[in-house]
Amino acid sequence: MKKLNFIALLCLACSITCPAQNNQLILREDNIETVIASMTIEEKVTLLVGGPGDLVPGAAGYTREIARLGIPMTVLADGPAGLRIQPKREGTDQTFYCTGFPTSTLLASSWDPELVETVTTAMGNEVLEYGVDVLLAPGMNLHRNPLCGRNFEYYSEDPLLSGKMAAAYIRGVQKNGVGTSAKHFAANNQETNRLENDARVSNRALRELYLKNFEIAVKEGKPWTVMSSYNKLNGEYTQQKHGLLTTVLRDEWGFDGIVMTDWGVKDGTVKSAKAGNDLMEPGRQVEIDRILAAVNEGTISQEELDRNVRRMLQYIVKTPHFRGYKFSNKPDLKAHAVVARKAAEESIILLRNEDNTLPLKGSEKVALYGLTSVDFVGIGTGSGEVNTKHIVNMQEAMTAAGFTLDESLVEYYRACFATQTATEKMEGSAIDKRHRPEPTISAKAIERQAQHNDVAVVVIGRIAGEGADRAVKDDFELTSIERELLQNISMSYHKELKQVVVVLNIVGVIETASWKHMVDAIVLPWAPGQEGANAVADILKGKVNPSGKLPMTFPINYMDILTSYTFPYNWEMTKGRKGERKNVDYTQYYEGIDVGYRHFQSDPDVEVSYPFGYGLSYTTFAYGKPSVKATADGIKATVTVTNTGKVTGREIVELYVAAPSGGLKKPSRELKAFAKTKLLAPGESETLTMKITAYELASFNDEHSAWETAAGTYQVLFGASVTDIRAKASFRLSKSQSWEVNDVLGTIQITE
Ligand code: GLC
Q1: Where in the sequence numbering do the catalytic residues fall?
Q2: CATH of the structural domain 24-323, one choice from 3.90.1570.10, 3.40.50.2000, 3.20.20.300, 3.40.50.300
Q3: Which of 136, 141, 226 is the pocket-test mutation for ligand 1 (most atoms within 8 Å of CB)?
Q4: Could you tell me if residue 324 is left (phi over 0), alpha (psi between -120 and 50 degrees) or otherwise beta?
Q5: What is the 3-state secondary structure (H, E, C) of 272-291?
Q6: Where are the domains of the chain?
Q7: Mutation test of ligand 1: which of 381, 383, 385, 386 has the most ligand atoms closer than 8 Å to its C-beta?
Q8: What is the pLDDT of residue 437?
Q9: What is the pLDDT of residue 430?
Q10: 60 CB less than 6 Å from ligand 1?
Q11: Is it the case that residue 578 has pLDDT exceeding 70?
Q12: How far, in Å, are 287, 316, 566, 600 from residue 276 at the CA level?
């Protein structure tokens, strides 16, 4: 009897102290429906609106906890070039620096999805080990115009290259069991008036360009989340556009994650929740009130509410916080710095190399010019910036690589940097733009330096970022001081029969045609992250053979670009104007699909300075006879590449297709596949295989609201760039095919 009593007592005690045993409901992966059924309306609505948090200082936002049900808070943090959190915290000497990896435009310049996946596998590890659940990246809006302030966070003017890079980025991060957020969905191609601008885009341009990269990323990367953009699209905020967030993203593309807003509150919270925007970030009480009221009055149905809640719970059960992962706060930053350096080395582009100026021998005495040689631009500004321990600059990198630097210049630029007023408010920008007017050096001094040094290396810098677009004057174009500096250096060093090398440490395309002939070599590292300067030095010294190629076009003049006519580069002139301001309150994408090389290649009268897909190497490559064979759902193309030079190197082969004429007007050629060789030794060959489906060949017909692949003969162009075609083939499609889609994106009235 005693024993029985004891057991009874034990059970009674347990039932009081172990709540779980009185079958309290705790969220698990396999009981989401039960949890939904047990949630109160208030709890459901709470889950749809972000809230405050301090789990990870510096994180951008959180989702809310519902302790009763074992639903944890989850942590969301930026950004595309690496995790962005505060490096220091109250009450501890421990630091929380993150690795500043190469920015997206440089990663895209590698044309190497495997490399990108390697980078973001390391990046995702920092997300995991610092206790974050979702990295708010990749940034992947198309480079519609070179002056968009956030282009450094984005990949390319071409949707295929952009989509493939983003998909690889997502796979790498998510390999760590943390999430990503493909952003900013969609048509967020300018920073000017970004919260309100109405992007007015034809369905064809949307489908073929501005949505195509997201389609590839969603289908091939499977991001846990998508971030809707601030702007409107064809008159409706994207975050409230059911056709975009539910019909296209989910019903057509099969996206099964959550959609979150970008960081701000708009009036249409209810419309947003109904459209399929599951999470409002950063989240305000007013949004909870609005959704609650809408549910109570039936404007939001129980089904709609439960649908969004279900998706939130399906997201939450995947997160490290839900799984109780014990993060270390100690990721291996040393190992990640090596990854960052290697990625920069594999992506940097050699634009010019007259008479094999590069590589240098390494023993040269180098006159290193440019304030940016000290104030090196590792990453742009805004939410895409990373709090790194150190950004290596060119003075440090060149010295570490064994070059002897002209000490007078080293001291001069350090002194200038120390006194330089580091910031100036960019009109209309939410973020300080570090402004760095180039200090002058007299022609006399340059003449003297030319006599005492072996080679000149000039670093030109540009910075930009979130909240403001770039300008034409003194930004896209060289400043007068920069131009004079280049002229004087070119004159003095060439008089001494010595060479001039330019390093473009820039966050976006600049004008090059008017000055590139003055110099002997041009290296383009973009904003290459914390280790990028070391990668530049390795390339100057020939330790690495550059293999990057341009992910966008360098035009001769800014106004050669069709989209420049509808880009708000001079929006200050519209200040104070009443009513709808063109390119500020609304932007007409008049150009349709004629963006980048699609325009320049179809209008050969318009020369460019450097074409899409262009990049040099220290070696040379020959392309063999290609073959193109039909497959069950498209074609398989192969081409053999041989290293015909004297040093090892890698070659990117770009496969362009010219569709048969007739029917829809199409660009003269479009990138449909690409591949990069492994490191080939002199004389070594590799056969590259690329596959294209009939759907990937299709163009979008607005009238039929359908993708259409016409029957006929297609030309296949194997290019070292979009203009440098090394091999050709053709194939014939005997029957046309079409894929109808929903006409739900709104149409545009092309008005002045
Ligand atoms: C910003 C950006 C977005 C970022 C978010 C959180 O406004 O547009 O890219 O992820 O807010 O910082």
Answers
A1: 262
A2: 3.20.20.300
A3: 136
A4: left
A5: HHHHCCCEECCCCHHHHHHH
A6: 24-323, 343-564, 619-752
A7: 383
A8: 82
A9: 35
A10: yes
A11: no
A12: 15, 17, 31, 38
pTM: 0.95
Please state the atom number of ligand 1 nearest to the C-alpha of residue 183.
9
The CATH classification number of 343-564 equals: 3.40.50.1700
For 619-752, CATH gives 2.60.40.10
Residue-level pLDDT at 575: 64
Ligand 1 pocket residue status of 183, Cβ below 6 Å: yes
**What pLDDT, in 10s, does the model give residues 447-494?**
999 999 999 999 999 999 999 999 999 999 999 999 999 999 999 999
CA of 264 to the centre of ligand 1 (A): 9
- Cα–ligand 1 centroid distance for 530 (angstroms): 22
- Residue whose CA is at the smallest distance from ligand 1 atom 4: 383
Distance 95 CA to ligand 1 centre (A): 24
Give the per-residue pLDDT at 577: 64
Give pLDDT tens digits for 186-198. 999 999 999 999 9
Q: CA 557, CA 472: separation in Å to the nearest integer? A: 10
Number of residues in the chain = 752
Distance from the alpha carbon of residue 65 to the mean position of ligand 1, in angstroms: 22
Give the model's confidence band at 614: pLDDT under 50 very low, under 70 low, under 90 confident, else very high: very high
Scan for tokens 């014990």, then name that residue.
326
